[in-house]
Amino acid sequence: MKTIIEPFRIKSVEPIYFNTTKQRTKLIKNAHYNPFLLKSEDVMIDLLTDSGTSAMSSEQWAGIMRGDESYAGSPSFLRFEKTVNEITGMPNIIPTHQGRAAEKIIFSILGGKGKYFIANTLFDTTRANIEFSGATGIDLLCDEGKHPTIAAPFKGNMDTKALRAEITQKGAENIPMVIITVTNNSGGGQPVSMHNIKEVKKICTEFNIPFFIDACRFAENSYFIKMREPGYQTKSVQEIAFEMFSMADGCTMSAKKDAFANIGGFLAMHDSELATKCRNVLIITEGFPTYGGLAGRDLEAISIGLKEVMSEDYLHYRIRSMEYLTEKLAEEGVPVMQPAGGHAVYLDAKQFLNHIPVDQYPGQALACALFVAGGIRSCEIGSLMFGKYNIDGKLIPAQLELVRLAIPRRVYTQSHIDYVAEVIIEVFQNRGALKGMKIMEEAKLLRHFTAKLEPLS
Fold first, then answer.
1. How do residues 335-373 score in pLDDT, each as one tens digit?
2. How many CA atoms lie within 13 A of 455 on its CB side?
3. How far apart are the C-alpha atoms of 87 and 80, rounded to whole Å?
4. CATH architecture of the domain with range 58-308
5. pLDDT at 287
């Protein structure tokens, strides 16, 4: 099989500033052992997130120049609205400045004390917005998704038996929404099958509970369905995406992921009455319904990116890139999420640093070690991000202890990825020298963004 080449040419570049291990040791200490607090110019390979960090195409840049900045009724919004409607089939489309703004709107309306939102796995801002409303978020990941290094085709699925039991226990009247995140970011970027989406929809219909999709990476999930699920091999990614959205009552999306945009998102739904309530909150907090906190040029970039992301040449390259890094690490015995996810490679920090207990945050220790060893910035997705405390102040650990290496779209080349693999393998070979972490300062919500830590002696 021939080498899979990038399905694009590079037209503009930005420099990477190199530094030494000694310098990086000081930099991570000054950042209180939290990669979020590093300056980006001090990072050599930035894999902290794939959100808003992708490279836009020449067509998107051209669209930015065409963007119409009218406050109301901009043609840029009309093109954006038409594109989202064609992909989702949903008539009520509300632009927001990013995905968490869409979450804030919908959960502030539907949430509140005594309410429960059920998902395959909620990501950090989704859970934070649910909890901020006074409601509770419940994750019901399928069993195979709880074992990082055991391969299965759709490890992002929801446990439908557990869903039915949870509805029966909590009461359907107390569950304003069931959510499927595609792909499952907190669970290793793993896809959700169409069969699972249909089963979840069937249960929601039975109990009259609205079903929403968190659609940040809808195109990657659709491509996985095409590759792995019987009956979809001959369908286009757009056809699969449309079928996926046809199961849902609504969706939220951060366009900073699968739309290649640097900013933006939207909320879409069928319920016109709920949409009116959402627009009222939008006007107060974000802006007029035809711009929603975005410039017209951003709406143009999103509209174009949503079409570009469904190119199967691009998606083939994208998914294969994740497999390439995963395979290189697995060959060296590095515990890595199997199979490869769609937007990131996830290290199993619990196995990688099995001498560090979960209450000493092995994922954070590993993320710091990767920066010191090679200037790579990654993101802990474990007990620092999702851990809670019981009434005695003892840590309730997260379900998984992962370190995510999120690959920005159309940004890094194969040599960058080869370098990342070399650094990870080097850290793995010297892992016994790494020590756990303790939190010195933390916020009540989304603590991983601003927490200050220190290594244990």
1. 999 999 999 999 999 999 999 999 999 999 999 999 999
2. 15
3. 11
4. 3-Layer(aba) Sandwich (3.40)
5. 95
Phi, psi of 104 (to 5 degrees): -60, -45
Q: Are strands 395-396 and 265-269 parallel, antiparallel or unpaired?
A: unpaired
Start-end ranges of CATH 3.40.640.10 in the chain? 58-308
Residues of the chain with CATH 3.90.1150.10: 21-50+312-455
Residues of the chain with pLDDT under 50: none
16 within 8 A of 46, measured Cβ to Cβ: no
Architecture of domain 21-50+312-455: Alpha-Beta Complex (3.90)
pTM of this structure:
0.94
Can you give the three-state secondary structure of 259-319, one letter per residue? Answer: CCCCCCEEEEECCHHHHHHHHHHHHHHCCCCCCCCCCHHHHHHHHHHHHHCCCHHHHHHHH
**Which of 137, 231, 119 has the alpha carbon at shortest distance from 182?**
119
Task: Give CA angle at 239 (234, 243), nearest 5°.
Answer: 115
Q: Pull the structure tokens for residue 92.
A: 């009520």
